């Protein structure tokens, strides 16, 4: 996306004045698209936080509620902002980022910000009671408990109930109603 | 009379019965009306509460289901949830707003006419037209998530309130009917005794029978105040009756006394009559002596002459005849006087009524007084009296009256230049009149009023008793006749009228 922007900019610098209006339009479109991505990420972050209201973790503790991001860090600023404002049932929210599986600490939610199937498989294998959230087609079937997808411009999610049950995570029927169920 | 007054009058004219019924019905209506109004308001309140409760529980369920849709911005799911409201016909509208205040999802029945201004809607619930709208804030973990507005059409729910006024009207009508019956019964028990009391009073005032008593009321209609009134009235009657008895006995006693006094008075009157007779007799004594002495002197003189003639001349036939006849006449006259005196001095009150010629009564009376009248220089005229003119009377009493009248006339005119007394008897068919007229100029009016009163006299002290005329009138009335002064006559005229035949024996005077 950034590449495209730079390309356009170059075109603007190199192109004729006649193309100025067109270029400006493209610029505006790009900015708009960028803003769209931003809000989509924000919404996804909000959704992740909302899952805490509809899913129960088996352990009862007053320790901070840890949300880790594995892979890409694009959601990190949004999550960090959210962590400042909210708590999960009185528990402070701590947001961690792990570039790879080795850096991953014990978490309640792990956002698998990756399209690497192998990484997901290793994560699932290593997982001890964390809710794994992903955003890649087919990942729910692969064992991600909640997987985002887009449906006619709306952000939706699918739930793998078996995966949740394996980690003894109890999901609310209210949440199941809104989700596409994957077995 | 002003309208207000006439109104007041008519209000006072209303009977207790009508007044009581009116008041009781009014009271019943007021009570019923206020009760049913209170019930209606209460029902309305309860109804609103129940609708509210319904809406609230509905909102709770909806909120529970809508909360995740808001959380995950799932408008489709939200609308799906709201569309489930179709199953409830009463709930017509539902609106869901997100925390930013923009419309998230809505549901409206096609027939619904509800127009909501959400900005102004700050209360929990409110009536808008015939809709009840409930505002239910949506929250998640104590954090505001949005707002749910849910509306119910009361016209659908409140079908029972359409029949409410009819039910109310029926209840009031039936109750008023019962109240009217009760009022009739109550007023009967109240006005009945009063009417009874009034009837008793009317009966007493019309019949004057104080022995009547107000009857005691039967137990069920007994009213303390009216019972007390009746008792007081009965006591009053008791007292009135007692007073009545006392007055009656006093009256009887009084009557007895009056009777006794009348008897005494009568006796006194009789003795007075007798004594007045005696006084008249005394008055006559002097004249009588004179009347008798003169003829006796003539008899004595003639007797002397007769004796001388017999001694001196021998017996002369005619002279002896004349003298002896003179002696005879004079003796007869003495005998007459004595007879008249005797009959006069008798108490004639118990004499029987006798058919007596008026002529003889007048002549017998004049024999007693004519001489004295003529000696006073009075012309005594007696108009010719038919010998067959008779009347039923006690002659001695009538004679006494005539003597009294002639005596009075003589005294009255003795000083007048013209002196005459006229006696006239007139046949009036069933009755006769005897009038005694003198040359006087009548009796002054003031005197006339009193002449028949006992002890009234115009004569000098010691000359008259003042009883003559009153006794005379008593005698004539005792004969059933009249005795009056004829004021039409220019002279002084007393007229006695007597029936020729007494229908029944008159009482003694």
What does it look like?
The complex is a heterodimer of chains A (about 180) and B (about 500). Chain A has about 180 residues and is α/β, with parallel strands linked by helices. Chain A is built from seven helices and ten strands. Chain A has helices spanning about 1-15, 20-55, 75-85, 115-125, 140, 160-165, 175-180, and strands spanning about 55, 65-70, 85-90, 90-100, 110-115, 130-135, 145-150, 155-160, 170, 180. In chain A, helix 1 (about 1-15) runs antiparallel to helix 2 (about 20-55). The mean pLDDT of chain A is about 80. Chain B has a five-stranded antiparallel beta sheet. A five-stranded mixed beta sheet of chain B has the order 7-9-10-12-11. A two-stranded antiparallel sheet of chain B has the order 6-8.
Task: Kindly list the characteristics that best describe this protein.
heterodimer; A: 183 residues; alpha/beta; 8-stranded mixed beta sheet; two-stranded antiparallel sheet; 7 helices; globular; B: 509 residues; alpha+beta; 5-stranded antiparallel beta sheet; 5-stranded mixed beta sheet; 11 helices; 16% strand; disordered N terminus
């Amino acid at each position: 996306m950034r590449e495209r922007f730079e390309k356009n900019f170059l075109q603007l610098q190199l192109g004729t004045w006649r193309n100025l209006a067109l270029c400006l339009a493209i610029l505006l479109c790009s900015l708009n698209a960028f803003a769209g991505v931003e809000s989509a990420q924000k919404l996804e972050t909000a959704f992740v936080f909302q899952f805490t209201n509809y899913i129960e973790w088996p352990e009862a503790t007053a320790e901070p509620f840890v949300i880790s991001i594995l892979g890409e860090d694009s959601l990190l600023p949004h999550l960090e902002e959210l962590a400042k404002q909210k708590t999960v049932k009185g528990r402070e929210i701590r947001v961690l980022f792990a570039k790879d599986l080795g850096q991953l600490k014990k978490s309640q939610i792990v956002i698998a910000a990756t399209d690497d199937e192998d990484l997901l498989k290793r994560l699932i294998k290593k997982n001890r009671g964390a809710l794994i959230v992903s955003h890649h087609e087919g990942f729910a079937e692969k064992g991600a408990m909640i997987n985002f997808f887009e449906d006619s411009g709306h952000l939706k999610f699918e739930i793998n109930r078996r995966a949740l049950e394996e980690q003894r995570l109890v999901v609310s029927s209210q949440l199941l109603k809104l989700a596409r169920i994957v077995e | 009379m002003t309208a207000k007054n006439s109104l007041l009058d008519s209000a006072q004219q209303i009977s207790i019965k009508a007044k009581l019924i009116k008041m009781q019905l009014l009271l019943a209506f007021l009570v019923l009306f206020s009760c049913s109004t209170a019930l209606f308001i209460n029902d309305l309140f309860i109804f609103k509460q129940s609708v509210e409760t319904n809406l609230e529980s509905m909102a709770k369920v909806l909120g529970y289901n809508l909360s995740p849709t808001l959380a995950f911005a799932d408008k489709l799911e939200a609308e799906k949830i709201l569309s489930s409201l179709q199953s409830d016909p009463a709930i017509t509208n539902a609106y869901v707003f997100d925390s930013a205040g923009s419309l998230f999802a809505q549901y409206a029945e096609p027939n619904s006419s509800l127009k909501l201004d959400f900005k102004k809607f700050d209360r929990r619930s409110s009536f808008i037209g015939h809709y009840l709208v409930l505002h239910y804030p949506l929250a998640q973990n104590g954090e505001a998530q949005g707002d749910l507005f849910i509306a119910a059409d009361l016209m659908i729910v409140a079908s029972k309130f359409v029949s409410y006024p009819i039910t109310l009207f029926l209840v009031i009508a039936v109750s008023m009917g019962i109240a009217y019956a009760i009022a009739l019964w109550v007023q009967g028990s109240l006005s009945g005794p009063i009417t009874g009391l009034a009837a008793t009073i009317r009966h007493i005032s019309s019949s004057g029978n104080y022995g009547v008593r107000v009857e005691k009321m039967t137990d069920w209609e007994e009213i303390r105040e009216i019972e007390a009134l009746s008792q007081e009235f009965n006591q009053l009657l008791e007292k009135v009756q007692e007073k009545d008895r006392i007055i009656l006995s006093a009256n009887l006693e009084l009557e007895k006394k009056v009777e006794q006094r009348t008897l005494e008075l009568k006796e006194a009157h009789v003795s007075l009559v007798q004594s007045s007779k005696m006084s008249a007799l005394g008055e006559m004594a002097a004249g009588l002596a004179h009347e008798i002495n003169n003829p006796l002197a003539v008899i004595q003189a003639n007797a002397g002459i007769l004796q001388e003639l017999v001694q001196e001349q021998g017996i002369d036939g005619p002279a002896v005849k004349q003298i002896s006849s003179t002696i005879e006449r004079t003796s007869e006259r003495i005998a007459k006087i004595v007879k008249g005196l005797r009959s006069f001095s008798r108490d004639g009150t118990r004499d029987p009524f006798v058919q007596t010629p008026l002529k003889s009564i007048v002549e017998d009376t004049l024999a007693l007084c004519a001489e004295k009248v003529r000696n006073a220089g009075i012309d005594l005229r007696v108009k010719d009296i038919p010998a067959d003119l008779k009347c039923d009377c006690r002659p001695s009493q009538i004679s006494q009256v005539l003597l009294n009248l002639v005596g009075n006339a003589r005294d009255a005119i003795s000083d007048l230049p013209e002196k005459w007394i006229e006696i006239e008897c007139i046949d009036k068919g069933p009755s006769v009149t005897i009038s005694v007229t003198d040359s006087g100029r009548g009796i002054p009016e003031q005197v006339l009023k009193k002449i028949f009163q006992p002890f009234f006299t115009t004569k000098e002290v010691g000359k008259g008793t003042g009883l003559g005329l009153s006794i005379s009138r008593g005698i004539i009335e005792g004969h059933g006749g009249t005795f009056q002064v004829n004021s039409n006559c220019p002279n002084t005229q007393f007229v006695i009228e007597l029936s020729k035949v007494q229908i029944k024996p008159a009482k003694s005077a």
